[in-house]
Amino acid sequence: MELVIKDLTKRYGEKVALRGFSYTFGPGIYGILGANGAGKTTLMNLICDNVKRDEGEILWDGADILKLGRSFRAKLGYMPQQQGMYGDMSARGFLRYMASVKELPRKRSREQVEQLLELVNLTEDAHKKLGGFSGGMRQRVLLAQALLGEPEILILDEPTAGLDPKERLRLRDYIADLSQDRIVFLTTHIVSDIERIATDVLLMKDGQLVRHGDPETLIQDSGGKDLEDVYMTYLGEA
């Protein structure tokens, strides 16, 4: 399992959103840090094949994802930062609906829905309407839907944003358990979450990768005491 990105560039008019990005990803959690406009979202959209690249390659196990097409997209799971949810739907009903959107066979989807409800500790609340769920419960439902179809690549966009400390730690623990056999991309402004669970950290600025490494090494190299100091050292931003 390997996702290789080579010299990836994306422009929007005269603005270069991503410039010559290269990296090789294997199983693990990759924390991506950078200010708004750093290129994080553009990178994720290119990996998902939502936008057209201008230059470079994205290879999955040696094959370009454009040639793989639908078979590659089936390997993706995406947890958005915000998503409209049908408040009158139950958690179980929503996950079954999302399974049908992903075109999972009925028997397989029903089995997976129950497994995922248990994974995110929502089995007892599965019959309840989403409109009455707390923010943390809704985030856990979104994580579960991203895992439908057993994706090998998981993209999590600000998964713990807006959660109270208890829910944030609980969701972070779920995410940490997912990295054994898949590639997980984690974009967040909560640097401590990345420091605790990321295998590698990628620091981005102005569409470029400016530094990368495991959290411990980055902290040592920066002379700081935590990843917040690393962020300030290499990105120069609060």
Number of strands: 10
Which blocks of ≥5 consecutive residues have pLDDT under 50? none
Number of helices: 10
What is the strand content?
25-35%
Percent helix: 25-40%
Determine the mean pLDDT: 91
Radius of gyration: 18 Å
In what order do the strands lie side by side in the largest sheet? 6-7-8-3-9-10
| Shape estimate | globular
Give the class from helix and strand content and strand pairing. Answer: alpha/beta
How far apart are the first and last residues' alpha carbons, in Å? 35 Å
Let me know the largest β-sheet: 6 strands, mixed
Question: N-to-C SSE series?
Answer: EEEHEEHHEHHHEHEHEEHH
List the helices and strands and how they pair.
Elements: E1 3-12, E2 15-25, E3 28-33, H1 40-47, E4 55-60, E5 63-64, H2 65-68, H3 70-73, E6 76-79, H4 91-101, H5 106-119, H6 135-146, E7 153-157, H7 165-176, E8 183-187, H8 191-197, E9 200-205, E10 208-213, H9 215-222, H10 227-235
Parallel strand pairs: 3-8, 3-9, 6-7, 7-8
Antiparallel strand pairs: 1-2, 1-4, 4-5, 9-10
